[in-house]
Amino acid sequence: MTAKVTFNSDRCKGCELCTTVCPKHIVAIDQTVINRKGYHPAHVTDITACIACASCAKICPDSIITVEKF
Amino acid sequence: MAIVYEKSKGLTDAELHYCPGCHHGIIHKLVAESLVELGLLDDAIGVCPVGCSVFAFKYFNCDMQEAAHGRAPAAATGIKRTHPHQAVFTYQGDGDLASIGAAEIVHAAMRGEKFTTIFVNNAIYGMTGGQMAPTTLIGQKATTCQEGRTKEQAGMPIRMAELLSTLDGCVYAERVCVTDIANINKAKRAIKKAFQKQMNNEGFTFIEVLSTCPTNWGMTPLKANEWLKDNMVPYYPLGVIKETAPENAEVK
Description:
heterodimer, A: two-stranded antiparallel ribbon, two-stranded antiparallel ribbon, B: alpha/beta, TPP_enzyme_TPP-bd (chain B)
């Protein structure tokens, strides 16, 4: 399965809630980026491992994550 | 390509003003998704409180009304009585509902007003800067109880779901939390059930959602999540507090 996870990174507040619920542990905070709000946004480290369960998107308080699968 | 999950149509495109990790965003989303899935979004009227969620009218993609502090149940009563076929809900925090608005919510529940209340309990006053709320736990520090709340000085925290469940007009009361996916799913089921019961004209429905306040608790969002599970859940037990069978709930 191929999955695509899109983050609206400019709206991410770096709360890390999404990193706790990923069953594959592939959602992490990107320490190399600072968004326009001044936070380190979340990103997916290994998209090939993604199972498109959308747990990260469900818990995101700001609804910035879209999950698609092919 | 299939979209597995995207932002609910029940929310506007406005950027939420809540602090990082605040559960308000998750609860907003669950209410919006429930309305969309039940086909009620175009028929929904929400009433906003005063508190952190005072700007909720900017975020829900349905008709919204702002109420005076604590008076959302009174405003919702009028709205529901004049629009009996619309889905009416109030969205209130613990300062709004359990403190200044305690009388309004108790009497709305007593009358069995047929609207749904989403009660967000984060055990502190968020917007005003972290003062002690009626729901603040014993030993929990706040700006107005810096050594921690004591039973002698402030009494025991109020359990609103249990309190309202003693009233006959309240047909459904459930307490949920949104700390992880399993609990988010349960919370959404509870909110949907409350709206369904409202649309069946059964009576007053009440969902208490335990929430974190990382900023005023002085914790990271992840630590606040754990603190909620370790401290709030034992005092505020999760689950259905009251559910009256529809035939017994003829409060007209």
